[in-house]
Amino acid sequence: MHFGRMAFFGTLCGVLFFGFFFSCGFDGDSADSGNEVHIRNGQEVKANDASLLRASTVSLTTAAEQAEGRSVCTGTLISPRAVMTAAHCLVGSGAITSPEKMLVSFGVRVGDASSQLRRASRFVVHPGYRSDFLSDSEEEERSLPPNDIAVVILQDTAPAPYRPAPVFTGQLKKGLKVTLAGFGVVFTRAYDNSGTLRKTRSKIQKVFASRKVIQVGKNSSRRVACSGDSGGPLFVKTGSGSEGWAVAGVTSTGSLSALFGGCSGPNFYTNALEYRSFLQGALAH
Question: More exposed terminus of the chain, fewer Cβ within 10 Å: N or C?
């Protein structure tokens, strides 16, 4: 199911188009080391973290949810005034369906005094998105939400030190190490625990034939995204240092498991690179 707030659920390297960045990366063993944790009760991203991961991951919320320190969805800053997210965060039950109702929170904790807010001016949802996908389809990719990607245009530019993440243009393949990030819940039985930016490491298990969908994690994996992480980034380490990150995917959907508090693997991501024309078009108007 979707991970929205109310639901359980030609390579262009280093080129700027309408404020939209693309980047190539590498698949080095040193890019992602250390103990693996999961977003549910996982590793919190610290306020003094200087990485591009921290500086491009934002919370999508509303005034009511923000007052309670809760997040509705997650997004990735891809230009100074644009946030990439999932279409189902803006369309359907539990979504923030109006730009007037959305607040974009810049900070590691929603509602924290140090967080800054920006308002949305308009939404650009992929025209091919459908919420009535075939959830019981025997064809695996057809059982996933199609074209689950959208862009939120901000009224004002993002505050410093936030900066856009480039889209990963390298090769996505099974075994590639990736990092998930989001403001979602630690476990689905208590939505009050959303609103804190967390990250975890995992690996790509499959890239579907269409190249539009990426599977991350295995069945019953505990290193997963959960409710509120929808729309958030799937990062690839592209180099050393704080700037060595690029966003490869948008959190779309995942599996349910009572054993692991409601969310388990695998997770499925929209492949951002396959939608570069849509993203460029959204930023050009």
Answer: C
Q: Is 212 helix (H, G, I), strand (E, B) or coil?
A: coil
pLDDT of 228:
74
Q: Say which residues have a Cβ less than 8 Å from residue 64's Cβ, sequence separation at least 6.
A: none
Report domain extents, the chain: 16-284
DSSP state of 269: E
Contacts of 160 (CB under 8 A, 6+ apart): none
Cβ-count burial of 19 within 10 angstroms (0-12 exposed, 13-18 middle, 19+ buried)?
Answer: middle
Return d(Cα 211, Cα 31) in angstroms, integer.
23
The pLDDT, as a whole number, for residue 77 is 98
| Complete DSSP assignment for 42-73 | -EEPPTT--SHHHHHEEEEE-HHHHHTT--SE
- Conformational region of residue 274, where left means phi above 0, alpha means psi within -120 to 50, and beta covers everything else: alpha
Residue 125 confidence (pLDDT): 97
Nearest of 155, 161, 190 to residue 57 by alpha carbon: 161
pTM of the full structure = 0.83
**Low-confidence spans in the chain with pLDDT less than 50:** 1, 3-38, 41, 134-138, 188-192, 256-261
Report how far residue 208's alpha carbon sits from residue 281's, in angstroms, rounded to the nearest whole number.
25
Pick the CATH number of 16-284 from 2.40.10.10, 3.30.530.20, 3.40.30.10, 2.30.22.10: 2.40.10.10
